[in-house]
Amino acid sequence: MTTTMIAVIILAASFIGLILLRFPIAMVLTLASLFTAMYLGIPLAIIGQRMIQGMNSYTLLAIPFFILAGQIMSEGGLALRLINLAQLTVGAIRGGLAMVNCVACMLFGNISGSAAADVSSIGSVMIPMMKKKGYDADYSVAVTSSAAIQGVVMPPSHNMILYALAAGGVSISSLFLAGIIPCLILLAGLMTTSYVIARKRGYEKGEPVVVKEIPKILKDGFLSMMTGVIILGGILSGWFTATESGAMACVYAFILTFFVYKDLPLSHVKVIFLKTFRTVAMVLFLIASSNAFAWILTYLKIPAMLTDVLLGVSDNAFIILLIINILLLVLGAPLDMAPLILIMTPILYPVVTALGMDPVHFGIILILNLGIGLITPPVGTVLFVGCAIGKVSIEKGSRALVPFFFVMVAVLLLLTYVPGIVMWLPNLVYG
After folding, report:
1. What would the pLDDT profile of 264-281 be if each residue is shown by its tens digit?
2. DSSP characters over 250-275
3. Long-range contact pairs involving 297-303 (C-beta distance under 8 Å, separation at least 24)
4. pLDDT in tens, 209-239
5. In whole angstroms, what is the distance from residue 51 CA to residue 290 CA?
6. How far is residue 173's CA from residue 71's CA, in Å, rounded to a whole number?
């Protein structure tokens, strides 16, 4: 057995073993990289250098800003204002609260860029409201959890920034544009599924909004949505970089929350910063450890080997892309989204580029695929949060999610095999 093969076995065995021992994923990546480097005789200082190099990027500053802006808006009353805005459009349809839930999650995703933030903020309001109006708890959890996945596809998603860095400089603005139409298709699929199930279960129509409240709802909704407009508009117009737009969004969110709406006292800023710092620290450690792990993978030529294996299975792009999607769906069940983006991108990127797939197209497919993993047991973070809010078991919540899961997979396959859907907006704007 060759040295390289033994090193691959050490890397894989330590990675799987540490995960089974429930080590944090960042520690798993770091320790697996160190064990393999020690066997290969690579100076451990190189691993440290690679970790620091992984965080040494100006573009990465956008992630803390996006997280801070989302945290400020989440702590305030943004969720309820967006729910009221969604109520104007679809609230009076049969199963209207489920429709409102889907639309509100999309609107909130345009600000937070996070599925976990979506299900926490929107779910804490919508799930109890739906249960009070006679909706089954499992249905309420399923709708909210699946609708929250729109947050990973709808710009500005910090997962897109992670992918752009892992792929070696894919345009963030192109990724943001590419996510808009897929998110709208996903919204249509989830709303249709919600409506069909609502009719089957006999849920009542929603209550129409009182006319005199409409101006205030529109004003509050417009002001809340301006956070996403600042981010997207600033980047696409060329006025700001992604980092600068994130900083501007933080300033706007701070002024809106503390001085316009006055949802929170100024003393609450400390709590917001502490939560943001905790999240940012975890993300940066994960990025650093993933960079070291990716370097070890490249050193062992694992991406090249996988490319040869997949291209050896078939020369049919349809088959290879199906295999990649199945692989990602399987991996997304036990592992979290962010580490998988950082691990799998350098492995699969050579494969898809060899097939002639656009890196932006692949980024949206990868992110949506791994987003579905967030509602898939045994480690479905978003599903766990939704079930905790709705006070239903994971088993019951998972069963209720099945129709939504298949709709999301159908959307994933549609986007995989019809690239024009994903690439139309980026091509329209940038050519």
Report:
1. 888 888 988 998 888 888
2. HHHHHHIIIIIS--S-GGGHHHHHHH
3. 297/11, 297/343, 297/346, 297/347, 298/346, 299/40, 299/42, 300/4, 300/7, 300/8, 300/11, 300/36, 301/4, 302/8, 302/347, 303/346, 303/347, 303/348, 303/349, 303/350
4. 677 777 887 887 788 777 777 777 777 777 8
5. 8
6. 22
